[in-house]
Design brief:
single chain, Rossmann fold, 9 helices, globular
Length: 263
């Protein structure tokens, strides 16, 4: 994760936008995306599967769990079915705080992500590594009421498992009982030995900034939470919807763990 805007340095949000077929990216983002795709050919499929997981999980929180407040960290560039759109289709009065550390993301978000008249949407330019500042700036959220904490495809940019675990638990500790954690992280556990070796080499040489987690490491983020069915699975296997398009990524293609936990 970078700390300021620099079009010459690849940023995860813009690379993700490139993989999703967007146009809000620069040459450095496309070069980084193509290099990663060489090591992991299903990168674009995984990006789409992860986005679909976000959509299904947010709908679950709003429709089934009655969550009306959302803190989405690592927002990424706006695309179809953003968190507030999914939540406010179910509950027009839902409140959403988006957080990202790329000024380009925030500029697009302020211009494109508009709330329903009865709901509210805010944008915070902040880094996941500063959880206390995020909580302090998420002022439209009532932290005495349940919150849906969205950490989708963002924690795996932190190399240290210990630091990542501390950050997630700092955020969760500030939220009341009944809150939900929606999280996804890259993993190599579904991959063939060859693909796993490619991923390791990409990390070693600096071509990748995505640090995969084992199942045990991913489950550490949910310590003290009740994980809802179907548990920890590949994002494409988390409550798939027959209403979605025909593309259904395999766990090898969507090598990303996903889960939802209840505090």
């Amino acid at each position: 994760m970078t700390d300021r805007f620099d079009s010459g340095v690849a940023h995860p949000a813009r690379r993700y936008n490139y993989w999703l077929g967007g146009k809000d990216n620069f040459a450095a983002d496309r070069e980084s995306g193509d290099l990663l795709a060489k090591a992991y050919p299903a990168a674009r499929i995984a990006a789409r599967a992860n986005r679909a997981f976000l959509r299904r999980a947010v709908h679950h929180l709003a429709a089934d769990a009655g969550i009306r407040q959302f803190l989405d960290i690592g927002t990424g560039l706006p695309t179809a079915d953003n968190t507030h759109e999914v939540a406010q289709r179910v509950a027009p009065a839902a409140r959403i705080v988006y957080v990202d550390n790329d000024p380009m993301v925030m500029a697009h978000a302020r211009a494109l992500l508009t709330s329903t008249p009865t709901g509210e949407t805010r944008y915070v330019e902040q880094d996941l590594r500063n959880p206390e500042k995020i909580l302090a700036e998420a002022s439209i959220l009532d932290l005495a009421r349940p919150v849906g904490l969205i950490l989708v495809a963002v924690v795996h940019f932190l190399p240290s498992q210990e630091q990542a675990r501390q950050i997630v638990h700092t955020l969760l500790d500030a939220l009341p009982s009944g809150s939900r954690l929606v999280m996804s992280c890259a993993t190599t556990e579904f991959l063939t030995p060859e693909l796993r070796a490619n991923w390791d080499e990409s990390l070693r040489t600096g071509r990748s900034d995505v640090h995969p987690r084992t199942r045990a490491e991913f489950e550490e983020f949910f310590a003290g939470l009740e994980i809802v069915d179907p548990g920890v699975v590949a994002v494409s296997e988390w409550r798939p919807s027959s209403a979605e398009n025909e593309e259904r990524a395999t766990p090898v293609e969507a090598s990303i763990f996903g889960a939802v936990g209840v505090k």
